[in-house]
Structures are given as C-alpha cells and as structure tokens.
Amino acid sequence: MRRAIAILKNEGLLRVDQSRGTFVVTKPIQYVIGKRVRYNKTLNPQGQNPSFQLLQVVETVADASIAQRLEIEVGVSVALIERLAFADEQPLSIGSIALLEKGKGNREKGIGNSKLSKAFPTECCANRI
Description:
Elements: H1 2-10, E1 14-17, E2 21-24, H2 39-43, E3 50-61, H3 64-70, E4 77-87, E5 90-99
Antiparallel strand pairs: 1-2, 3-4, 4-5
C-alpha cells in the first residue's frame, strides 16, 4: 500500500499531508479575471461542469455602491439575487447580482441585463461581491 501511494504521489495524483492524511490532487481551475468573463465558457473547455444554486432573491433598495454602478439614484428598488456557483459539484464562489426593472435606468436602452456587469466589483466569477 505504501509503495502504491508513493508511486501515485510521484506522479502528482496524490498529496500526503503530515498528520492530516492522503488526498487526491485535483487540477486547478484556470479562470481569467476580466470585464466580460463567462462562467460556462471558461469551465466547459476545462472539462468542468458549471452549475448554480439559488440562495435567495430579495427586493431591496440600491445603496450608493449599487446605484453608482447601475447609474441610478440611491433608494431605487432593485432585485438582489444571491447564488452559489459550482464546478463539478464543488462550491467555487458565492455571488450577488442586482437587477433593475427595464426602463428604470438612466440610459435609453434601460438597464436590464446589459448593466449586470456594473452592479458589483469584478472578481473571480464576475458580478460578485
């Protein structure tokens, strides 16, 4: 058994942590951080199965940060959606998205989905706080 573990460890398939145990090594996910990063398009080519779990949807009012990014007034009603993102059923991130009713924004096209990328600071999985 020790020899088999040693071989798998040398091949980079196992990691042995003193006093903790032996663990299967997973390939790290490569994720480019940028303005228009698509979760599914990033994970699918790496053989990862992306999925989401809806945690909550609440109606709230835009604070200063959300209002600035959506180019609306503070206090305007928005829907805040929080979800947990997975890669191959392993939790990867928790993120929030603010939605504004179409036609309620400052631009001719309205805010709708076109402004989601401005709702929150960019990080690992875009539109997350």
